[in-house]
Amino acid sequence: MLASRTGRISLLFVAVALACLGVADIAVTTQNPWAELQRLMSGFLTPDFTAVDDLGTAFLRTLSYAFTGVALGAVAGFFLSLVFNSRVVRTFCAFIRAIHEIFWALIFLQCFGIHPLSGVLAIAIPFAGIFAKVYSEIIEESDPLSARVLPWGTGRLARYCFTRIPEAWPHLRTYTAYRLECGLRSSAVLGFIGLPTLGFYLESAFSQGYYSQVGALLILFYLLIATMRFWLRPRLIPVYVLGAPFFLGDGLPIMWGNVTRFFTEDIVPRPLREGEGWEGLQPWLMDILTTEALPGIWNTLILTQIALVATGILALLAFPLISPHFFGPKRRTGGHLLLVIARSTPEYMLAYILLQIWGPSMLPAVVALALHNGGIIGHLIGRMSGEIPMRPNAPVGINRYAYEVVPRVYPPFLAFLFYRWEIIMRETAILGILGITTLGFYVEGAIQEIRLDRAMVLILITALLNIGVDALSRRIRAYLRLKTRPTCEA
Amino acid sequence: MNSLVVNDISASYGGTRVLGPLSLSVVPGEKVAVVGRSGAGKSTLLSLLYDEARETGVYMPQDLGLVETLSVFHNVFMGRLDQHPIWYNLANLIHPMKRPTEDISAILETLSMADKIREPAGELSGGQRQRTAVGRALYQQGRILLADEPVSALDEPQAHRVMQALVGQFETAVIALHDVDLALQYTDRVIGIRDGLIALDEPSNRLSPSDLQPLY
User: Fold this and answer.
1) Which residues cross the membrane (chain A) (predicted)?
2) Which of A126, A270, B24, B132 has its CA at a distance of 20 to 30 angstroms from the CA of residue A481?
């Protein structure tokens, strides 16, 4: 088993993760982590919903940012998907989706200030890149026969609108709804860097020690996501999308002078700005590379590899909780609840909370990434395992797990895991903003010092790293002959 | 109008030859039936003929090529997408206009499908789906019909009505049929296919059902 291709690749990744664990900074640095956790738990048990004003605004803004951003991204992504066979468009989309929403938001905050436009664009742009790719994959998969029977001379657009798109419609809809859920998480997290969404209120409640308010915010957030299929009716979507822009709030007025300065001065590399020309550029780039980029890349890679393997282990341990081959319906409901909580809490939010409890190190980041991503993969694999027919005399318990179920779900499990590799890396870079020395840490630092030219170079490097990992993951999936569906949440 | 001519065509599937090499010519005005056991290569032959006659051909494949999520109206309307400017096509996609609705209703009337005009094709029975594809072929303005088992899911009276409509509308037609009686009644030339090759090619009036038995 271990000698197979999948076995060897798995072992290789585990070995790399163990080596990374050896050099990673993993420690609990707070004096009394359990007391902090206790306070958080008591906040959950005694949620305070009385701060209604704040709660209402927090959710209204979170929802309207998400709807506006995802809708814009979906429309732009749709049009991009029509021309996705062009190499230029594909590269452009890969690039804009390799930059995380938070990085986009950090850029736009410098440009437009605290204005709804910053948040909406931060969601819309990377989502457009993702939508373009997945929409074109879905449309590609639809049956070509209906297009073949069309009369000769039918235009390209008519061909598309009458055959490919209507055929792919149900899948496009499912995928867009799933992305809306992701958009809600992104929108909530944007609050942590100053936009008026859920994260903003969560952070202020945390920093003031109002744990009951934290509990209330989180409970409402879970309810919002868990009840999505009740309030997200197809007929209501136009209402939401058209209504959302009116609830974005005003924010601060945009200083157009700042916007111009941002493009013409702030992001122009300092040596060029100060007339040192290309000779000055090289030492400047070398300085960024050696003092910030390389340590950032190193830590990002270490954290990503540990988190990837931890995600895999957690998913393999968690999926039986919702699999009918192991537990009855009652216990499975409990398992579903756990996995829903794990996968609907954004990594950033989890990492923030764990950081409050354990203090700054890589540990909160690894656990947050593993919980969120492990929750998603565990959910998918658990559901998939339910479809395996089991012979009546099959072994039970751990034997069943090891001999009957895991061997069958292992290939799709690996496919999902490698699919999320790039997502984990994107997120790892971002967690730097919380103080873990990944690339985001240096980006945030450069922005604090208003050295936006340095920040842009670092964001660019992060994007290239993501594109690289994505390419590597695709090669490994091809080598292992793993099929991945575009809608990872089928 | 030109004849439909193919020379030495062949087709392979997964390394195995399923059709040909064979040559065939159909002159304008001819109605040809293609008969033979299932798997003999009839569908492949029709598909290749369609490639040849792409510009004037009207193709009705065995799998119909309907768009399941669109209504019967839209599936039939697709037969004339080449006739209108794009804005007109898109406007009809959003809301069917009066002219095409009347034309298409008239066609569906002859197919006893008028009451289904607004139903999505995915929710129809097999026979209704087949008649929708026939409707699309009848609505389309082409010269040569290439139909693959167009009446296989219909009962006898319906099958006769559809065959009459098809040979009435198209001057030239190549139709794959497994029903020998229909083939002899509605066409004037029969081509029998066996193991991917032409095993028989005779005028219909010189054949009787028993002559076609060896093909099956």
Assistant:
1) 63-84, 214-232, 239-256, 296-322, 423-443, 455-473
2) A126
- Gap between the Cα atoms of A25 and A478, Å rounded: 34
Please report the pLDDT score of residue A88 as a whole number.
94
| Pick from A145, A161, A163: CB nearest B61 | A145
CA–CA distances in Å: residue B214 to residues A262, B37, B182, B209: 83, 10, 17, 10
Domain boundaries, chain B: 1-56+142-216, 66-141
pLDDT tens by residue, B71-92: 999 999 999 999 999 999 999 9
User: Are B69 and A169 an interchain contact pair (Cβ–Cβ within 8 Å)?
Assistant: yes
Write down the pLDDT at residue A52.
62
Locate the chain A residue with the closest alpha carbon to B88: A158
The answer to whether B78 contacts A150, with C-beta atoms less than 8 Å apart, is yes
B114-139 pLDDT, tens digit each: 999 999 998 999 999 999 999 999 99
Within 8 A by CB and 6+ apart from A120, the residues are: A65, A68, A69, A72, A248
What distance in Å separates the CA atoms of residue A351 and residue A279, rounded to the nearest whole number? Answer: 42
- A·B CB contacts under 8 A: 71
Question: A148 to chain B, minimum CA–CA distance in Å?
Answer: 8
Q: Right CATH number for B1-56+142-216 from 3.40.190.10, 1.20.140.10, 3.40.50.300, 3.40.50.720?
A: 3.40.50.300
Range A167-174, long-range pairs (CB < 8 A, 24+ positions): A167/A142, A167/A143, A167/B67, A167/B68, A167/B69, A168/A135, A168/A138, A168/A139, A168/A141, A168/A142, A169/B69, A170/B69, A171/A138, A171/A141, A171/A487, A172/A135, A172/A138, A172/A139, A173/A234, A174/A487
Q: What ipTM was estimated for this complex?
A: 0.83
List CB contacts (< 8 A) between A149 and chain B. Answer: 59-61, 65, 78, 136
Q: Which position has the token pair 């074109």?
A: A136
**Domains identified in chain A and CATH numbers:** 1-30+280-490 (1.10.3720.10), 52-266 (1.10.3720.10)
CA distance A130 to chain B (A): 25
pTM of the model: 0.82
Of B64, B69, B142, nearest to A151 by CB-CB distance is B142
The rounded distance, in Å, linking the Cα atoms of A191 and A455 is 20
What distance in Å separates the CA atoms of residue B7 and residue A30, rounded to the nearest whole number?
83
Sorting pLDDT into bands at 50, 70 and 90, what band is A490?
Answer: very low
Residues of A in contact with B136 (CB under 8 A): 149
Nearest to B176 by CA among B165, B161, B187: B187
Query: How does DSSP assign B149-211, residue by residue?
Result: STTTTS-HHHHHHHHHHHHHH-SEEEEE-S-HHHHHHH-SEEEEEETTEEEEEEEGGG--HHH
Q: What is the pLDDT of residues A2-28, one digit of tens each?
A: 678 888 999 999 999 999 998 888 888
